[in-house]
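Structure ticket #2291
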Amino acid sequence: MLLTDSTKKLSFTRCIRDGDLVIVYEKHDTMKAIRVCETSVLQNRFGVFKHSDWIGKPFGSKVFSNKGGFVYLLAATPALWTLVLNHRTQILYIADISFVIMYLEIVPGCLVLESGTGSGSLTTSLARAVAPTGHVYTFDFHEQRAASAREDFERTGVSSLVTVGVRDIQGEGFPDEYTGLADSVFLDLPQPWLAIPSAGKMLKRDGILCSFSPCIEQVQSSCAALRSSFTDIRTFEVLLRTYEVHEGKMDCGQGDESVSFGSPPYKRRQRSNEESKMQENTSSPVILARPCGESRGHTGYLTFARLKSL
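Resolution: structure written out below.
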């Protein structure tokens, strides 16, 4: 759980309290965000879990249901929040987010402008990166989407670091009050080239802009608009490959066919009882690794450019 106090200093609460937001982890692809309430319960396939049993336990605890089933209670870090938040729009995921924050050179104290807010996946991580003294000003043309994002920032404890505005940046540009103040600008728009002239005015000397686009044609138009006022224009596609690592058994002397990867069963000769006992005695545990079958592919292109020094 990310909390901010009156001085905007961000910290982790190590023990769960009534009212905290926790990520209930069932397995790697089954998680949900839940607000702790002393009188509430969680019911799932593993049984009934009383919230009152969670209070006072440290984040990361393993808690049990009335049936003996269990889940883990995790802190709502930006990485986990990205996996459980409500998708009001297409979102950026961990690989793109981490790349954006590093390449935009975002550090504590930075002022960042963003358009559009969308589901707030990137915005939450930007807030963490600029804390405790920086600020993120994010804009979305859709009023209801902006209101939902504000509620999410309250839930995750970063609302004091983020200001959400309703504005059509493509048509109106960024507000003049930020002229020359932004350390970096991030654009996630259908036609980002329309907002590039305004973004250039907002940036400090030598400031950096990033534009996220799912289609290469958008990248081409954006790069054409960037050349007049920006330099060091680069475009990247970040592809992430994850692996499953777990313990299995290898039968000594039987070759690769005997390695257990959890694959579907296949026909083979039925062993006798004596052969089965010998097989058990000759098997040994090993750590197995293989690529996940559901690795995420293309999400979009990230175009970076640095404002020319006049």
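Closing remark: The longest strand covers residues 203-213.
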